Structures are given as structure tokens and as C-alpha cells.
Amino acid sequence: MELGEQARDFSMPDQNGNTVRLSGFSGRRVVLSFHPLAWTRICAEQMKALEVNREAFEELGAVALGISVDSVPCKRAWAGSLSIKKTLLLADFWPHGEVAQMYDVFDGTKGYARRANIVIDEVGRVIFAAEYPATTMPDMQDVKGALQAHERSRREEEMPLA
């Protein structure tokens, strides 16, 4: 996805089987954190980083969603094993990788999402997108930096001219 592009709406189940829609977060910023597969070391670190940074994201008006092609029961068991209690882990299981394909991060050869973070602003525009090598843990400081920069620019736009 290109910066400034309108994010495409989607719905898919979280680890508890609840349906989550992107449009349900209207007025908030959303971090889409794609990862290849549950039960792998770097993916686990990536999802734990979302949980650890959850409050910082909330202070910046954002919610983070972890997304992979794994099934709901797999995501539920994995969230429990990682002690993830508040971060939503979404199952892009069926149609297989549909949302990852929508956001151009699906690896059709391997059958799973590439590692990526995409930040969507409160009106549904992409304001940050980064893809990472499969063996690299994404830096959540990049995501927080994008959220902070967006907040600064939004505040500057709201300031009255002197």
C-alpha cells in the first residue's frame, strides 16, 4: 500500500472468535502488524512487543492488531502461551490470506504474510508502511514515531494562524 492511500476495510475473527472490522475503529489510528506464522520465535517477539507497547499506542490514539494466516484455535492457544491478554490477534485464515493480499504483504509462494507494519490514521489513510525481512524483529519505535509525527502534524493543522 502507498502512503496516503485509503485503507481497505476488512473483517476477520480475533483469537476469541469475535469479528473485528477495520471500520469499527473509525476515529482511531490502527496498527496492522502482519507476521508469517504463529509459534515461531520472531513472530512471538513481534506480538509480545504489541502487548508491551499497547498503552503507548493507546496514548497515541491507536490500537494494534496482530495478523497472520493461522486459524482462530491456533491464535487462541498461542495468545495464551504468550500471555497476551489485551492485544487482538486476528486470523486471516479463510479465505486464506485475503487481508494480507489486500494490503500487498502476502507471499503467494510460501502461503503466508510477509512481516510488515502498516499504520492507518483516524480517517482511514495509510500513514506508515514498512516491510521487514522474515528473520528481523520489527522496531516498534518506528511505529510509535510515525504515530507521534502524525499527531504533531494534526495538532499543527488545528493551530489557529496568528
From TrEMBL:
GO terms for molecular function: antioxidant activity; oxidoreductase activity. Keywords: Oxidoreductase, Redox-active center. The active site is at C43. Pfam families: AhpC-TSA (PF00578). Residues 1-152 form the Thioredoxin domain. InterPro entries: AhpC/TSA, Peroxiredoxin_AhpC-typ, Thioredoxin-like_sf, Thioredoxin_domain, Tpx_Peroxidase_subfamily. PROSITE patterns: THIOREDOXIN_2 (PS51352). Coiled coil: none annotated. This is Redoxin domain-containing protein. It comes from Methanoculleus formosensis.
